[in-house]
């Protein structure tokens, strides 16, 4: 493509409303333009990257036997009413009336449509398992769209759905999907982790989020420094073994800690490390009060509390509730003499001569020893993992990172098939509910992830798998006939060899052309300049800045190596 | 793809609500399913055809230098208000409010978005001409969606827009687009015509519709039996030369025609051919009464009347108006003694001893001769063309056909660029308004057109360019190990050779498999049956029904010929 015939409106200035690097660069390099809040046009370069990402996703989906189809954007309200999501999805579901006042959702996801389709068309176990996917524009009315393509209101997704007769069959497909996603994000050149995630209220079991490591990410990931273990910090299991000090047991003693309330304040006041303190927090668990203990340097993870107690709802008690139940302010709560159920993290078990609140204003205990001084109804892993903890898979230590979610795999189970009566006849002619999985990739979001992770201060840097063009050929001076002709010849020749070429044939200064080229970030640049009269062109690698001069007739034979 | 792992839900019965062949077959063969009125899912086979059509369109667009981008579905109302179409587009424009009560249209077309984009990004003549296109889902709230994909509410379109500094540049692009469209529809195997169409109220000049000839079409096309001339019948120029009889002129005579009012009745009553009659109709043209004359066997074309008189509005006068102005009922109106402006079709000029109304109840004139008996203010081509008329390009005679519109090219001129102030600076630094063209193809509609034109009574027949799979391999009996193994081997081998293969590996009766195969319409079928034990398979051409038996090892070398 000749640059004079396409639309690549680069900007010198950083757009005022773009907060993060990827958003700034995608705007400045002319890949996208905003049409409305959270709604973008993909200009020619952005569209090319999008289509290349789609092609990779398609290939890997096809490889695992998933079958592509295309469902509509307009989804009748009746389908969403069957699952109840018409009411529960909230303001993020874009809705509209047609001319006959029938209600529709603009699809943010397609569980309802695909379940209704498969329910109507599949009647026998013989036609299962089945995995279907589509690549399609989705809609979600984000309250605060931001970060460009990262949190938009109209975006491109690959969404896949699978249907099974058994949990084993679902497990098998889930593993295939995890592998396909791993292939996809590897081919995209991303540093990512498959992160164990919370299956939330949907009721499924296994779920992984594919997170690209990036400081702009909205989620924190706990990952191993040596293995591929990674989990959402809410989900990461703590397998730390705590050593119990063999110091002599002290006597249980009440002391006045005055106005010192927080863990930090009490530890400083008593000149001990926070590990000595027993953090005691009153929770309301399914309408029952439960005292939850963790070590002073740890944080309670309420999802783990919920799972340990097999509860539906876990909430911290209010200061008023705490005062009423424990007879003291929040800062003085402790397990000794408490009249409520007590659960404690494993870390508490090993505390020797610890400190805890005494359930009286301005009073703490010292010399506290679990079992001797109070009993615990149940020990468990109920704290957040921390950096430095051993990785749950036994390999290495945990580090934290922020992540951008680019993919999600989820064992739905029968959440949708039950609500929508998607059943089949088994080998014995008995009606059974289908078991489902769903699997998404944020196609347009990938552009942001790649731009965040691979760009430098001069501009974007595309991996060769999804670069808008393979090679950027720059004619330094279009008024110089020798340069112009050599550039046009090279363009034709490379196109014949099936390379995607962007030719800068504009009447612009060399400085503008080089700056634009750095901004756009095509991995290989060929500069046709003064030395073309001697038959020499310059090849530059965008990522490393490495430059070599080559006789023009060697370029074709060298190019495959350079691109690698 | 193995048929056991995909979703091809064929139907034996004709679905009750499908009126036309293509709709019935696309449903029965499992290519599409309706989700809501005019809203469809493309099942795996339908999606494959869609993607192949898209690829052909993309290739031909790229070949003429058009550049792909992707604009959003959600279009802010403000943009549509700039051109006034927010108000004029009517109920077909789907509209919605976001969570902040901002109004959006779901794009049925993208003139506003692209014009705003180009207006903001292109400032200089140096960046023009520019041709941009996208392939995207569009929305139009049809009052009565019908005929499956033909008149849907959500559909896939290719829409292109071009921007120019001169009419010549637009003309050049328009010609390129016409050529690209011709290539596209030829590659799709369609019998089509580029039809001269009415540019309507938009104010552009040239416009062609690409019509696939089909009896279910909603428009009538006048086309030449020898050349590629074709026009919407409203637009087709009449170049007939009329011979004037040299019979002796009769005297003008009043006769009582009683209750005989219509052309047919009067001609029969007087025992003459309709050619002898002068059909006289009173019109209201821009608030002035005009008497319009055509030969009795011709029909007035009001678009031609409008163009001849350079008028804004042309309407037939009501019977009351006619009675008031002419003093008689509609059936007795005539030019002799009329006090209004008279225009006549060229055909009237040659009438000798004709018959017309006498502007009195139950009275006609015979022996009427134009010029001698009445004068005409202006002669012109103001009738509809008829079958048998000479083609306006001088080649052959006109025939009529019905057509399905699959494409449209249109010289927009400055309709949008003026309304939205899309200007550039010319060589002299002066601000000029961009000149635009727009060019659409109904991608999903192509499926209907192909199905209508190429199917037979057994099912669909796909041209090799867009067939969902190249070859349908059918294992007659999956319980026969020899057949099963030979089928699976063949499947692998053909896939290695890069053929797209559908393998019928289902546990179904042979009859079901063959009927489904005919219905689906893959052009080449390879049947792995009993004779595979002797190394023989059967190859069948879907279109001709031609069958040959081949040694399995010859299949690979023969297949390219067979597919051709």
From TrEMBL, chains A, B:
GO terms under cellular component: cytosol
TM regions (residue ranges): none
Catalyzed chemical reaction(s): tRNA(Pro) + L-proline + ATP = L-prolyl-tRNA(Pro) + AMP + diphosphate
Compartments reported by the entry: Cytoplasm
Molecular function, one GO term: aminoacyl-tRNA deacylase activity
Domain Aminoacyl-transfer RNA synthetases class-II family profile per the UniProt entry, residue ranges: 33-463
The enzyme's E.C. designation: 6.1.1.15
Annotated CDD domains: ProRS-INS, ProRS_anticodon_short, ProRS_core_prok
Keyword field contains Signal: no
Top-level taxonomic group: Bacteria
GO BP term, pick one: prolyl-tRNA aminoacylation
Keyword Metal-binding: no
Keyword line: Aminoacyl-tRNA synthetase, ATP-binding, Cytoplasm, Ligase, Nucleotide-binding, Protein biosynthesis
Gene3D superfamilies per record: Anticodon-binding domain, Bira Bifunctional Protein, Domain 2
InterPro entries: aa-tRNA-synt_IIb (IPR002314), aa-tRNA-synth_II (IPR006195), aa-tRNA-synth_II/BPL/LPL (IPR045864), Anticodon-bd (IPR004154), Anticodon-bd_dom_sf (IPR036621), Pro-tRNA-ligase_IIa (IPR002316), Pro-tRNA-synth_IIa_bac-type (IPR004500), Pro-tRNA-Synthase_IIa_type1 (IPR023717)
Predominant cellular place of this UniProt entry's protein: cytoplasm
Function text: Catalyzes the attachment of proline to tRNA(Pro) in a two-step reaction: proline is first activated by ATP to form Pro-AMP and then transferred to the acceptor end of tRNA(Pro). As ProRS can inadvertently accommodate and process non-cognate amino acids such as alanine and cysteine, to avoid such errors it has two additional distinct editing activities against alanine. One activity is designated as 'pretransfer' editing and involves the tRNA(Pro)-independent hydrolysis of activated Ala-AMP.
Free-text note regarding domains: Consists of three domains: the N-terminal catalytic domain, the editing domain and the C-terminal anticodon-binding domain.
PANTHER family for this protein: MITOCHONDRIAL RIBOSOME PROTEIN L39/PROLYL-TRNA LIGASE FAMILY MEMBER, PROLINE--TRNA LIGASE
Family: Belongs to the class-II aminoacyl-tRNA synthetase family. ProS type 1 subfamily.
UniProt subunit comment: Homodimer.
Protein name, as recorded: Proline--tRNA ligase
Provenance organism: Perspicuibacillus lycopersici
């Amino acid at each position: 493509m000749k640059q004079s015939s396409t639309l690549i409106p680069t900007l010198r200035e950083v757009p005022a409303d773009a907060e993060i690097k990827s958003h700034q660069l995608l705007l400045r390099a002319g890949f996208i333009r905003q049409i409305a809040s959270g709604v973008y046009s993909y200009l020619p370069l952005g569209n090319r990257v999008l289509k290349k990402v789609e092609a990779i996703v398609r290939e890997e989906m096809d490889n695992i036997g998933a079958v592509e189809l295309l469902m509509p954007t307009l989804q009748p309200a009746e389908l969403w009413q069957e699952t109840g999501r018409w009411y529960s999805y909230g303001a993020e579901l874009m809705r509209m009336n047609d001319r006959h006042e029938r209600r529709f959702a603009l699809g943010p996801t397609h569980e309802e449509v695909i379940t209704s389709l498969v329910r109507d068309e599949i009647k026998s176990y013989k036609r299962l398992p089945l995995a279907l996917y589509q690549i399609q524009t989705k809609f979600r009315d984000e309250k605060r769209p931001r970060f460009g393509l990262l949190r938009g209101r109209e975006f491109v997704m690959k969404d896949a759905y699978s249907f099974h007769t058994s949990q084993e069959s679902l497990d098998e497909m889930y593993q295939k999907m995890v592998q396909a996603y791993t292939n996809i994000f590897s081919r995209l050149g991303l540093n990512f982790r498959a992160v164990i995630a919370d299956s939330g209220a949907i009721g499924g079991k296994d779920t992984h989020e594919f997170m690209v490591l990036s400081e702009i990410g909205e989620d924190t990931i706990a990952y191993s420094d040596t293995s591929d273990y990674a989990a959402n910090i809410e989900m990461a299991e703590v397998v730390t073994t705590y050593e119990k000090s063999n110091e002599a047991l002290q006597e249980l003693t009440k002391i006045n800690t005055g106005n010192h309330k927080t863990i930090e304040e009490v530890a400083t006041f008593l000149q001990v490390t926070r590990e000595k303190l027993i953090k005691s927090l009153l929770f309301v668990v399914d309408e029952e009060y439960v005292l939850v203990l963790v070590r002073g340097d740890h944080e309670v993870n309420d999802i783990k509390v919920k799972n340990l107690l097999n509860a539906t709802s876990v909430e911290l008690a209010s200061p008023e509730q705490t005062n009423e139940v424990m007879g003291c302010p929040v800062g003085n709560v402790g397990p000794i003499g408490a009249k409520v159920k007590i659960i404690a993290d494993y870390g508490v078990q090993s505390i020797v001569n610890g400190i805890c609140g005494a359930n009286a204003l301005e009073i703490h205990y010292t010399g506290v020893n679990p079992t001797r001084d109070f009993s615990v109804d149940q020990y468990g892993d109920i704290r957040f993992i921390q950096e430095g903890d051993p990785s749950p898979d036994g390999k290495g230590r945990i580090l934290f990172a922020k992540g951008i979610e680019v993919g999600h795999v989820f064992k739905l189970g029968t959440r949708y098939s039950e609500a929508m009566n998607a059943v089949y006849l088994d080998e014995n002619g008995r009606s059974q509910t289908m078991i489902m999985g769903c699997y998404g990739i944020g196609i347009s979001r990938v552009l942001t992830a790649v731009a965040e992770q691979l760009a430098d201060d001069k501009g974007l840097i595309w991996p060769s798998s999804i670069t808008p063009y393979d090679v950027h050929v720059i004619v330094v001076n279009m008024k110089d006939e020798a340069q112009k002709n050599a550039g046009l010849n090279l363009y034709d020749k490379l196109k014949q060899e099936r390379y995607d070429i962007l030719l800068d044939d504009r009447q612009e200064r060399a400085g503008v052309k080089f700056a634009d080229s750095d901004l756009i970030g095509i991995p290989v640049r060929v500069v046709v300049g003064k030395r073309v009269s001697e038959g020499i062109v310059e090849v530059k690698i965008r990522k490393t800045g490495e430059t070599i001069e080559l006789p023009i007739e060697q370029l074709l034979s060298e190019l495959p190596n350079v691109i690698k």
